Amino acid sequence: MTSTLLKGLRVVELCEVWAGPMAGSLLGDLGADVIKVESFPRNSMTRPLATVQPWPGEGPAFERSPIHHISNRNKRNIALNLRSEGGIEAMRRLLREADVFFEGYSAGTVEGLGFGWEVAHELNPNLIYLSLPGWGAKGPYQGYVTLGSGLDAAAGHTIVRGYPDRPVEDTQPIYHSDATGALAIVFAAVTALQQRERTGTGTFVDISQIEVLNWHLPALVADWAVNHRRQERVGNTDPLIVPHRCYRAAAGEAGEDSWVFVAAEDDAQWNALAGAVGHPEWAKRGHPWATITGRLAHRDEIDGALAEFVASGTAEEIADRLSSAGAIAAPAVAPWSLLSNPQLQARNWLQYVDHPYVGTQVFPGFLWEVEPDEPSWDRPSGLVGECNREVLADLGFSEAEIEDLYAQGAVGDRYG
Amino acid sequence: MTTNASTRPLAGRLIVEVGGSIPVAAAAKLFSDYGADVVKVEAPGGAPMRRIGPFPGDVPDLEVGAFHVALDTGKRSLTLDLASPSGLEVFDRLCEHADLVLLHTATSVAVELREGLRLLEHRPHVVVLTEHGLDGPFAERTENGTSLLAWTGRMRQHSLPDEEPLRYAPYVPEMQWAATAAAVANACLWSSEHGGEPREVEVSGVEAMTGSVDTWFVVWEFQGAEMPRAGGQSKAAYPAGCYRCSDGYVVFASANPPFFNRLCEAIGHPELITDERFLTPAEKALHFDEFFAILDPWLRERTRDEVFTYLQQYGVMVAPVLDVSEVVTDRQAVARGSFVEHALPTGGTTLLAGPPFHLDGGWDHGPAPRIGEHTDEVLRDLGYSTTERLALFRAAVTG
Predict the structure, then answer these.
(1) Nearest by CB to A211, which of B56, B229, B338?
(2) Is the peptide bond before A372 cis (omega within 30 degrees of 0)?
(3) Any CB–CB contact under 8 A between B115 and chain A?
(4) What is the Cα B177 distance to its own chain's centre?
(5) Nearest CA to CA, how far is A403 from chain B (Å)?
(6) Domain coordinates of chain A in residue numbers?
(7) ipTM of this complex
(8) In the CATH scheme, what is the code of domain A10-216+353-408?
(9) Would A57 disulfide with which of A358, B101, B351, B370, CB 3.0-4.6 Å?
(10) Cβ contact (<8 Å) for A370 and B184?
(11) Can you tell me the distance from the alpha carbon of B376 to that of B255, in angstroms, rounded to the nearest whole number?
(12) Which regions of B176-328 does DSSP assign to beta strands (E)?
């Protein structure tokens, strides 16, 4: 059984795609009873009706999408038509019994369905209600829609990434705001619960995922505020640290496209690096590269020398050699390299999980180790409506009423 | 925002922060900004994070580094030499009163400090941040944010094939690691209120990031192939990625219906919705150039902000690519108070990100402490006599 840190809490998740569902999984990892409410009959973006790629197993595509499996463990799934009378009643009962409710639709959507904060608070004055539209619940962009890539762009993250000598079109979209958003939801929910202990009443929490990402970029904001400087796209370069970039290796787990990131932030790390490369003299007094200022002045020559060294071996060997000596070095790993990473293996980090439709697959492990009650993967990604009957019965619906809800199309267990 | 300390959500909690790094300081900031009493234990020379800029006017100063100013808000600073038995004695006595200890030090030091905390009569929760974990063959390795990111696979995924893998913005990995540690640490505090026993938690930087959502391992595992790294604009599922307007860029994430359909309608080409070239993923992948030939001129005739606000009226997933000067003056940010002015100890002000979540009256941003500003106060609170405090200072155990 998973960790019991949040045991006893009932959480209702009404979210799609990544940030919200990941938060639900994390709360589930920590022991909360998380009920994921999925829309019905409309399928969510991560539950496609047809396979786009050859996904493992057989059966409905909406149960086999990797994007969906990433962030939906440790929850009980129920699929409700929130535009039907029966679905609305089930949702009202869920909210009445919940400690925490969080929703990730664009601002105003859930209110439009009749489950805004005022209604929910009246149903259950103890409820913690978190709303996490991309740009927040309030403000002139209310109702605007986005995915994580848009939030990274609008928070000023996208413009500072990328290759300095290439156009912005070549910068890959990233979805960092989904990762940061998920963690903010967990912290916010638990903070609000502690406030509830004090005040005896539930509260509304407005989370703007873009503000969460702003929080993660303090240097960017400070440089503008105090120096009126917009940071530029500099690739992997650090203006104060030499070396600080990736070099191409001869080969490695990632095949011909294998690279090693190498850095020496101070003289001790440089000394370790020079020794591991077989040139201890680079760090001896008098050598032009032995000092911080010397290395800043000779960035290109050092890059050339290290490029040559890294090209002499596989990415993994080179990284091991430099890193064991005390320098900073890491291969830019490909997805499959996680399977052979000796550290992750030694810590039994990867999780082998069985699922009714996709069979046994390997998943990344948990974000934290907790002693004495480790998180565990108690439930794989839930099937559509898998826990409809169980959850509805918990909410006081009789068997006949549940049959009726199915007959009305108020609940469902498949799409298309 | 000024709030009454006693009514804030985490008021009454004592959190001890050790290590002086960005991830541990950022994790502890979440607690201090929401009302906890955070004591930052610094080595006599000050936390290493104080050396990380930018600095106003590029003048290095341990009291005004961007990370110290932003991440040490509302904390108390205790200067203590943890390498000495006398320092450890003060540390243990402090932790006897703590609800939570956040540690990010060399692995061997973390193990030793944790051992000591196990012997306390009142054991706090202990959350240890490590790069790779406290055990295993990489346990002693030194990393920085970029090397951590390299280990997670994100650098490779978010760069072009056959070109140098790219990091995220500097220190973004450390900040995510911090948020990961803070989330579980806060769950520990909640558990204490409900009879939970003290926990020992490890948060490995590599695991924290590799296990989160924007990692593509599961996609590879399911599909047997990597997500294509075809550059900024996807040529298969589009529009997704950066597109040029007359004066800047927008990012689209509107490849899927209904977003694609809404876009076609909004740009005056509703016929594309039923055009066979764009109906199925397989067909669509063959016709990027034809679609681009329609969308590109439409975008080039309009400004970035026009494209953003006009297409959002149609429910198209599109966002402007902003630089920081535009981020802080964006009308949504201004209306919400997304950034707050914050006084610098040397005079003048800077900007900080406001609350990462809005909880009525819950958040504040107190000044970051000077090195050792609260040493004497904390030692008095712990019951050290005047002679003891002078002796500890004289021996450079405190500062």
Answers:
(1) B338
(2) yes
(3) no
(4) 7
(5) 32
(6) 10-216+353-408, 244-340
(7) 0.97
(8) 3.40.50.10540
(9) A358
(10) yes
(11) 60
(12) 200-204, 240-244, 249-253, 318-320
